[in-house]
Amino acid sequence: MATRTEAKRRQGSRLYAAVFVLPALVILGAFVLYPALKTIYDSFFGRFGEEFVGLDNYRQMFEFDRMRKAIFNSFLWTAIFPVLVTTVGLVLAVLADKIKWKTAFKLVLFLPIAIAVMSSGIIWRLVYDASPDLGLLNAAINVPASIVSPEGDYAGAVASLDTVIIGDDGSLSQPVEVGPEGAVSNIGLLRVPVEDISQSSVQAVILAPKQGTITGVVWRDTRPGADEKGVVEPEEVGLPGITVKLVSADGSPVGSATTGNDGSYEFEDVAPGTYQLEVNASVLQEAWGGVTWLGPSLVTPAAIIVGLWIWAGFALVVIGAGLASLDRAVLEAARVDGATEWQVFRRVTLPLLGPVLGVVFVTLTINALKMFDLIVGIAPGSVQDDANVIALEMWRTAFTGLGDRGLGSAIAVFLFVLILPIMALNLRRFRIEEGRR
Amino acid sequence: MTATTARAESASGGSGGGGRVQGWLRKRVVQIVLAVIALFWLVPGIGLFVTSLRPVESFGDNGWWSAFTHPAEFTLQNYSEFLGDAQLLRSVWNTVLIAVPATIFPVFLAAMAGYALAWIPFRGRDTLFLIVVAMLVVPLQMALIPAFQIFNFLSLTGIPAVWVFHTAFGLPFAVFLMRNYYAGLPDSLMEAARIDGASEWTIFSKIVLPLGWPALASLAIFQFTWTWNDLLVALVFAGNSRPFTVEIQNRLGEFSSGIGIIAPGVFIGAILPVAIFFAFQRYFEAGLLGGSVK
Asked: Which of B138, B204, B281 is opposite residue A32, by nearest beta carbon?
């Protein structure tokens, strides 16, 4: 009697098992397993899946520039991103363990993971803007940069005549021959924006030579309409406040003067001979232009930093949980034995955290290989090719433009092959853990 | 007593009073460093928020931080433009239409499958679960093209296609998480119920489902955040029923002319997941840990 109910029960259980498992199984089979196998199959066929092409897609994959760049970038991501994020996560977890507001800190670092990865990319475009006026990062760098080499009063101006020699450092110099009746030496500047000219500035003067002096004007050598270069004309204003230096033929300084509102300067008691008139480079020094972070060469490292911003919280939380589950008594014992904090960390904490660090590292490696949304969000259209990664190229190949089903499938299979070792690792770990049960 | 003091001192990195001061100092430095890092982490988001409140005309002139010196410049113009854009509003609604069922389906299916895999013995069970574990890391790129064809064949397009695909690729993790959680429930509970003659369905609905609540919550929050924020799946399958991520991606081309409507879009799209994240932070964390560390 008992065995019969048992048998019935077993049969019932089997039926129940089917009812419970089948819906999930059918969906997994129809939309994961079958498509995955079909993708492998498709990868040996042409663009529209008709003719068999053998390994052509796999060959072609390594031959077109966009994909090669994508492979290179994915390699860069995989090499840098998991190590970087795991290390930062570990350091932060250890540090955060020492503070009282640990939970709040974790929450803040974890926050980016709640928002769309593409949105994070867009958020960081604001940080990375190439202009120091618009991009936060460049603006921050600009603070020390503008102290080291501040923008000149007439930034970006150039000399109007080729009698002016431009030094290696960007300074201007002009040879002056002083005869018995003195000399006039003018320096005209172009590309001086009106807003750079001081309010007090007036029409540049035309000076006659005066015995024993070198005199001249530094002026804005442009005016609307007919304009002759090198000649002081009406409507052309003097440029005040420029320090002009006089240097003798042997290179020794003779003196310096500052231009007035009409642009004029004057050196008195100058003996006849050859001199050099100089204007310091700092006057013409342009403001620092900023780094094009999202340009072709820097976009991938810049994106990896955004990746750190997004996933550091994940590493922090998981490693932090691992840290919390450590046996504090073991750590205490090491300390009592006289180990320094560093020794405790290096010899006890780190080995005990090994498995957790491994899990974090593996998860981040998969993330690095599957990176897609972040690149879409952060890379401006024109540098999308330079920021390209395998997962993005798969989508571009298969679903944009004409769409190449065969090649797209081959790229997907390639991505899968890169992830295979991780799958093997997962299965092994799982088997070991199940064995322990 | 003396032993405790000695231990406390050696823990703070030295011996004697000097060590204590040093330890205190070190703690202060750690506090400051972490506070600065936390600030760094917040700044980009604050930048976006402030940008979304500035007039588009000012975007080309100066950075968002200059808004603090000209507070009069703050405006809701971008938001009203967003709200006046039917397509954008529709896209947020589409995101809701996608994310809710795409969360409920896999969570429910995984709760059932997880129970069977943990507690109903049947032949091939372990192999089946092993296959699920293997599927955990299959990149969804492996299924995009054939799934696209299957959906076309079934005339299943737009949002329902997105549901099915999200369900399929959410299932391995969901089943994995639920099965492991259920497996941790005490043996005695199931046996007692079975001896009492409870059917599997009764055990599932009356005992396992309520007990598995924390895991279900974690899973649901995880899956919801994932489907809400997804770009790739929607890009391929959603067709004209674009969710907000795809809509914004579409408009990124106009980015160079200013991110006028994109900034509020990104912000609005982030409100719900961030709110959920704050409200259910514990579950969120638990789901994360359940997926990686057991």
From this structure: B138
Contacts of B281 in chain A (CB under 8 A): 107, 110
Q: What is the rounded CA–CA span in Å between residue A42 and residue B160?
A: 25
A411 Cβ neighbours under 8 A, 6+ residues apart: A61, A67, A390, A393, A394, A397, A398, B141
CATH number of B80-292: 1.10.3720.10
Comparing A257-271, B13-27, B104-118, B167-181, which segment has the lowest mean pLDDT? B13-27
**Rounded to two decimals, what is the model's pTM?**
0.83
Chain B contacts of A394, Cβ < 8 Å?
Answer: 141, 144
- Evaluate whether A70 touches A61 at the Cβ level (below 8 Å): no
**Chain B contact set for A317 (CB, 8 A):** 285, 288-289
Please list the ranges in chain A whose pLDDT falls under 50. 1-2
Chain segment B144-175, per-residue pLDDT in tens: 999 999 999 999 989 999 999 999 999 999 99
Total count of residues recorded for chain B? 294
Return d(Cα B5, Cα A336) in angstroms, integer: 12
Q: Which residues are within 8 A (CB) of B236 and not within 5 positions of it... i.e. 6 or more apart?
A: A395, A399, B144, B148
Q: Do B293 and A395 touch (CB under 8 A)?
A: no
Inter-chain residue contact B248 with A124, CB threshold 8 Å: no
Q: The complex's ipTM?
A: 0.86
Domains of chain A: 64-134+293-403 (1.10.3720.10), 158-284 (no CATH)
Residues in B closer than 8 angstroms to A28, CB to CB, are 132, 135, 168, 171-172
Half-sphere exposure in the Cβ direction for A400 (13 Å, CA): 8
**Alpha-carbon radius of gyration of chain A:** 36
pLDDT tens, A46-100? 988 889 998 999 999 999 889 999 999 999 999 999 999 999 999 999 999 888 8
H helix runs in A325-404, sequence order: 328-336, 341-343, 350-370, 373-378, 384-387, 390-399
Across the A/B interface, how many CB contacts are shorter than 8 Å? 300
Q: Provide CATH 1.10.3720.10 ranges for chain B.
A: 80-292
- Of the partner residues A36, A118, A314, the one whose CB lies closest to the CB of residue B245: A118
Whole-angstrom distance, CA of residue A163 vs CA of residue A283: 19
